[in-house]
Design goal:
This protein has 727 residues and is mostly helical. Helix content is 65%, strand content 4%. Strands 2-1-3-4-5-6 form a six-stranded mixed β-sheet, with helices on one face. The radius of gyration is 32 Å and the shape is elongated.
């Protein structure tokens, strides 16, 4: 009734569109226009199309499209309005479709209002090609010098990472406004070229023609976050107060400042600024604080803030999920993600990367698969290379290397970035598929991409896990020789080479390499050498490596255990006992072993060594006895050499039978279907006894078993292991 009375008091219902914000009320106004006989007028139709297309909802855009389709010869304003509406919608490709139809009709040529909207649509697509075609039309119709069109072109190429062309367009502009500078500064920040962004800002200041606005500073604070340079951030923060007024009420800018300090780890400053935001705090500001505390290792503080939020958007949920994942609390990350899904919140690409990372660390293949098929497979996989790399990494780390390879081979050549190649190479390395990894490495170089430090770590690991000693040496030499890749080997690369040489018995050569390194070896390298010495029985070099390890990590129990086991293997019981005693005297304990196994319904089960508290503990114990009986019948004798010496042999056999991976295996034999691969993830290196038992179990029970330990994957089938008993 109120709307009818309001309509009757106005000579034309069209004026009501100015203040209308709701779709249903818009339909009422449209009905009055029809009743008053105004709907045939071009002006009325143009106003209606403009209102509904820019209302910001799908229903409004669909209604405007229906109105538009009823017009025999739409004018250019109508075409531009529809293109603009779709450029802001979830269907930006429709703007291209409309433009193509407009050109085909040939009634009116596009103007300088057409192209900015059209280029903004292209910037939201998965590939650059449509934007390049539109760019050619811009040149054809003579609008390349138009300021708004040129800014849209700079934005397009910045979004797709082609900053060289974006900079050329910027430099060739006869006129530049603050949007030109802001667009390019933001582009440099997003492609991790913060120094270029700061130089451009310096050029703008030196020119003295334009003053920075709030969007300039928002982009600059993003640059400081990338640089992780809070001192530069503080300088820019001071410039804000010199150049802008009413800062306290600028929610966008204050949120950006909070985000910068939080990402730089200055949480006290971030919190102080966060508390000064006078208006209702944005979800972005809350999310920055949550991410900042989580990134600083203060997970409880992050969760406390997260729980205080009145409204949480997908960014807020992602901040907390990522915080859990980065802190190693992957189970909590997955639980929170499931809670988010239960509330009907759809994950974005950043969320999916965080959740896939958690799945990869826990070996949660079934959940990872569901995410892939539900959200990624037919949509955004080949549009976001970071997400593509995360999917490949997840499948590889969850033991499904064939799926990882299939996805990798399905990625278009122009979307295979260095990160995508690196994920595939490292995944193959973990599975001991060295030849395939080197093939992928050669594919990378053949495409014109240059391998980076991460690529070489993956390729050298692949050689190490596959016995490719000569290939590894050549690869290492190619990093820095005259005709190579010009990469200076870092600690990780030397570590891979020591591991490669040590694994295959070249201990003198490995030790010689350690001594010739241009920097002091870290604990990882000495551990690799000690492990190799234990395998090959070289006590002399092993004791040197062991002593270095204990000097570097005197409180790390695993180092004492490894050295003690090497001495015990060499029958040097007295020396081994002394190492164990030193460990006990210092109150040092070996890190507890745990293993995860995932059931087909996506539930994860965690087992601790010798822990009987699992809800199915009694059933597991019965299965362990069944395994022990069958293993004994097959000639298995427990290997207790690595168990502490001060207990009798029977107790030692009990200890090894309750290792976490054996508990997980017993559970898997009961609850995984006979045709399903039993997949286990372990936080420590699988011991000799468990490795031997798993081989026999795979044969006795006719099951395929995959174990991922800290070193590599072990695929047990028909009584043998893919590692060929060397890990």
């Amino acid at each position: 009734m109120m709307w009818k009375r309001f309509l009757s008091e106005n000579s034309s219902p069209l004026c009501l569109l100015e203040s209308c914000k709701v779709f249903k009320q818009g339909l009422q106004i449209h009905a009055q226009i029809i009743v008053n006989g105004l709907h045939h007028q071009i002006f009325s139709r143009s106003r209606l199309i403009s209102f509904f297309s820019l209302l910001g909802c799908k229903d409004g855009l669909d209604h405007s499209r229906r109105l538009f389709s009823q017009i025999d010869c739409p004018n250019l304003f109508m075409w531009n309005t529809m293109i603009r509406g779709y450029s802001r919608s979830d269907s930006p490709r429709e703007a291209i479709v409309l433009y193509t139809s407009m050109i085909a009709n040939g009634i009116e040529p596009p103007n300088n209002f057409t192209f900015p909207f059209l280029l903004n649509s292209c910037a939201r697509l998965s590939g650059l090609e449509p934007g390049q075609e539109v760019h050619s039309h811009v040149i054809k119709h003579g609008f390349e010098s138009d300021l708004f069109v040129r800014n849209a072109l700079i934005h397009l190429y910045s979004v797709f990472g082609n900053l060289n062309l974006a900079r050329t367009l910027f430099d060739e502009s006869l006129v530049r406004d603050i949007v030109s500078y802001n667009t390019l500064i933001k582009g440099y920040a997003e492609v991790n070229k913060p120094e270029y962004a700061l130089c451009l800002f310096g050029e703008m200041q030196n020119a003295g023609v334009l003053l920075p606005d709030e969007y300039t500073f928002v982009a600059l604070f993003s640059v400081c976050s990338v640089l992780n340079e809070p001192n530069i951030g503080k300088q820019i923060h001071s410039l804000v107060y010199k150049n802008l007024s009413h800062i306290d009420y600028n929610l966008l800018l204050k949120s950006a400042i909070v985000d910068m300090y939080a990402k730089c780890g200055l949480m006290k400053i971030a919190e102080r600024l966060f508390n000064t935001i006078r208006t209702s705090k944005s979800a972005a500001a809350w999310s920055s604080m949550v991410s900042g505390y989580a990134g600083s290792g203060e997970i409880e503080a992050a969760r406390r803030l997260f729980n205080q939020m009145d409204k949480r958007d997908v960014i807020s949920w992602t901040a907390m999920i990522s915080g859990y994942s980065q802190a190693g609390q992957c189970s909590a990350a997955l639980e929170l993600f499931k809670e988010m899904e239960g509330l009907g919140i759809k994950p974005d690409e950043v969320t999916l990367v965080a959740v896939l990372s958690a799945c990869a660390r826990l070996g949660a293949l079934h959940l990872g698969k569901r995410l892939y098929h539900q959200y990624i497979e037919n949509g955004i996989l080949n549009r976001n290379t970071i997400l593509t790399a995360a999917v490949i990494d997840m499948f590889a780390k969850c033991g499904s290397i064939d799926s990882a390879l299939n996805i990798f081979h399905g990625v278009p050549e122009n979307m295979k970035t260095g990160s995508v190649f690196n994920s595939m190479i490292y995944g193959l390395a973990q599975h001991g598929l060295g030849e395939t990894a080197l093939k992928v490495f050669r594919e990378l170089t053949s495409t014109g991409l240059k391998p980076d430090e991460v690529t070489f770590v993956g390729a050298l690991c692949a050689c190490s896990h596959s016995g490719l000693v000569d290939e590894g040496k050549k690869l290492f030499d190619s990093m820095f020789n005259a005709i190579g890749f010009g990469i200076k080997p870092r600690m990780e690369h030397y570590g891979c080479m020591v591991d490669l040489l040590g694994r295959y018995g070249c201990l003198e050569e490995a030790y010689d390499l350690v001594q010739k390194m241009p920097f002091a070896a870290n604990s990882v390298i000495w551990r690799a050498l000690l492990s190799a010495c234990r395998t090959h029985g070289n006590v002399e070099i092993g004791e040197i490596a062991g002593q270095k390890l204990l000097e570097m990590e005197a409180s790390h129990g695993a180092r004492y255990v490894l050295l003690s086991n090497m001495l015990a293997d060499a029958n040097q019981w007295e020396e081994a006992g002394q190492v164990r005693k030193a460990m006990e005297d210092h109150g040092i304990r070996k890190p507890p072993g745990w293993s995860y196994i995932e059931l087909i319904n996506g539930t994860l089960h965690r087992f601790l060594a010798s822990d009987k508290s699992h809800p199915h503990g009694k059933e597991i114990e019965v299965m362990l006895k069944d395994m022990a009986m069958r293993l004994k019948s097959a000639g298995y004798v427990p290997n207790t050499a690595q168990v502490m010496f001060d207990i009798d042999e029977e107790e030692k056999e009990t200890v090894v039978s309750f290792h976490s991976e054996k508990l997980a295996l017993a559970f898997g034999l009961m609850y995984c279907s006979p045709t399903e691969i039993i997949r286990i993830v372990k936080n420590l290196r699988i011991c000799i006894d468990c490795h031997k038992a798993f081989k026999l179990v795979s044969q006795i029970y006719g099951r395929e078993i995959t174990v991922r330990d800290t070193i590599r994957f072990h695929h047990f089938r028909n009584g043998s292991c893919s590692c060929m008993d060397f890990w």
